[in-house]
Amino acid sequence: MSEELIHEVIPVGMLQCNCSILGDPETREAIVVDPGDEVERILEILRARQLNVRAIVSTHTHIDHVGGLARLHAATKAPVLIHEAGLELYRHLDERAQFLGMRAPENMRIEERKKTPSACCDSISPREPTFPAMRNPLWTK
Question: Is residue 127 part of a domain?
């Protein structure tokens, strides 16, 4: 019998956004969801669990969910998956940081081919079972 899915939840950053690490105990592949900040802490957990990041997923582009995207991508070279509806908000992280009175996080260029699927029945799957990718219109404005 195989081990259960690795699931770590780490509250990160000033707003304590829940970052999730989902990993396959057999293949050691993982996805990181909403790396809002504290990338070194996320990387420490990935190293301790001996996980290789296959994708970095953003559920939406509020600053507390994407503040660590660029640094985690630089460290892992994993593709960043963001729904196209959140790209405009992501491009203005500096304004969001100023509004919150915090330092603007490092930003990266998100290429169109690195968006998450936009249909409700598409999926992101490091291995079965699949994870549904859904558009969340409430969090893209």
Answer: no
Residue 114 pLDDT: 41
Judge whether 28 lies within some domain.
yes
Within a 10 A sphere around the Cβ of 130, how many other Cβ atoms? 12
Tell me the residue range of the domain where 41 lies.
6-114
Q: How far apart are CA 63 and CA 94, in angstroms?
A: 9
Q: Is the pTM of this model over 0.85?
A: no
Residue 25's CATH number: 3.60.15.10
Parallel, antiparallel or unpaired: strands 29-33 and 131-132: unpaired
User: Where is average pLDDT lowest: 5-19, 43-57, 67-81, 108-122?
Assistant: 108-122
- Which residue type, as a one-letter code, is found at position 117? P
